[in-house]
Amino acid sequence: MNTGRVDIAQFESVCLQGNPLGDPSFRRFPVYLPPGYSEGTARFPVIYHLPAFAGTALQAENSKAWEERLSDRLDRLIGSGQCPPVIVVTPDCFTRRGGSQYLNSSAVGNYETYLIDEVIPFVDQNYRTLARPEARGVMGRSSGGFGALYHTMKHPEVFGALASHAGDAGFELCYAPDFPGCVTTLEGVDPDDYLEDFLGRHKKPGHMFHTINVLGMSACYSPNPNSPYGYDLPFDPYDGTTREAVWKRWLAHDPVRLVDDPACIDALRNASLVFVDAGTKDNFNLHLGARRLVKKMREAGIDVVHEEYPDDHFGLVYRYDRSIPLLATALWGDQIP
Question: In the chain, what are the domains?
């Protein structure tokens, strides 16, 4: 079987320089080039694969026992004829908080600008891409799925198709249930100290994840440079009462709410593929968020592929066997080689 190759691209980001977390501005990320790329001059569509929260770009190419690397999966799908050849880029938008939600934030950094204005032009300049939105898609799991939904709605001039696996949507279902536990956990604890405690541990305790996630999302969705921590919590740390003004800022990013925006509706109507799935046992209720999102999409006349399966939130990369061929086919349109 012919195989593709993986380049580790790298460049110094201008917009990430001086970011508030002190994260690197020099970034490295894998670029999968399909079989035949090296031998010819043809150009290919591109899929941007966005990692989940706490996931890094290079993890996509980690070798694990009994599991395929992303490049192995792509080789198999393309080699078997299930998927047309496509370039796949996994950008590095990781931060010491665990992620960026692929947004611009004064508390985290300008990762939306980094992705849209730096990574994509870099890829188009250095690889033989079909550099137009109709041939450029975006996909991901969890926070990566959120990023796929968000950027397709907000940047139709960049992305023309998406696949979201258990993407963050329906924020009152996926985030708010963790707020009371955060109040208890942070009782008498400085949030910055909590993060430093977590980062300083050789083994990252699972029981700390929910609070780390909420603090990270606060930094992404409700940054506030005038706050002692650089962001606002969406609840009162004393009794857990919702801070409505802050929560409203969170909801402004919720895909379930974004799909009320006529511009976002138009972007999704014009997309060649809108694929949304989630497991029916999702630990963060994202199957319910997906149902709400898909219901509103269909009411708005958006053509969406919605699938469910009996699984929870974790270990869902096997679902890429379903989404990647659909996405690649949509990006090629009637020009499939």
Answer: 5-168+256-335 (3.40.50.1820), 173-251 (no CATH)
